[in-house]
Structures are given as structure tokens and as C-alpha cells.
Amino acid sequence: RRERHFRARRQLDIEGAKFNVGGIEIDRVERFRYLGRILDQDDDDTHALLRQLDRARAQWGRIGSVLRSEGVNSRTMGYFYKAIVQAVLLYGSESWVLTKSNMRQLRSFHSRVARFLTGRHIRQDRNGTWHYPPTAGVLEEAGLHTVEEYIQRRRDTVRMKFVFGRPILSECRQASGFNN
Questions:
Q1: What is the pLDDT of residues 45-81, one digit of tens each?
Q2: Quick one: DSSP state of residue 171?
């Protein structure tokens, strides 16, 4: 609730801002599509995440069943997941603003795939208690890292390749007096 309160206050401050191009005030829009992605004025990327999650589920549904029917081992299926499905899932994640709920959704999908790969599902025992194999062990057995690790790698790649490697960064730092 507190986070929502401060987000709402920030939003009110933002809505009062006016933008000019060449001395002419430009119209404000709440959402717009840029390179196929919907950008939202309140930095909520949930719709982008859900879109990629749906696409990844569909992709995994097609690939996972074929790999299972062919009897492919869990490590090899993990390679297919990382190369094909995860590329779809995390497309655009370099710039997503992720909430705890968003991360929980990504973690859940990632863990379910790892459980599918290893065959170590959440199961109810005969006595009625539930057995939850540790996610860290399941990920390790499948040859996967956490989804946070993959997102961070993608962000680091963008930062190193497209931000720190550009000469304009040093010019911006000099112009603003930023020395680090």
C-alpha cells in the first residue's frame, strides 16, 4: 500500500510537467507503442511482461512436448529452453521496470520449466502432505540459473555494449560535471 501511495503521489507530480519542442507544447499521452512495445507513463511494464510470458508459454508448449516425446535428457532440454524459450520470455527485459509481483511470475514460470525438465514436480504424498523439491536443486539439476541472473546478464550486456562503450557517455559526464 505504501508503494502505491508514493507511486500515486509521484504520478501527480509527473502529470503537472509540461514538455516543449521548439517552443511548442506537445500533447501528453498515457500509452504509446514504440518498436512494437507499449510504453506506459507510469513505468508499468506488466503488460510487456505478460505478453512475453504468454509467448514463452506457447513456445514452451510446442517445444517441450517434442523434446519429452523424443526422450531428450534434462540438460539438453535446458539448452533448448535457454536458446529458444528464454529468448522469447526475456525479450525487452533489459529495460523493464519489474515489481515483486512481476518477478514472482517470472520465477514461477522458470521454476515450472525446470521442474518439467527434471521431472521433479510438486507432489502430494500418500499421507496427504505436499512435497516441494527445493527450487535451487531443481535449477542446478536442469543446468539453469535463476531468472534474476539471466535478466541481470542481459542488462549488463546492454550497459557494457551500448552505454559504457559509447564515446557520448564521457561527453555527457564532462558536460554535467560527473566524474565517475
A1: 888 899 999 999 999 999 988 988 888 888 889 999 9
A2: H
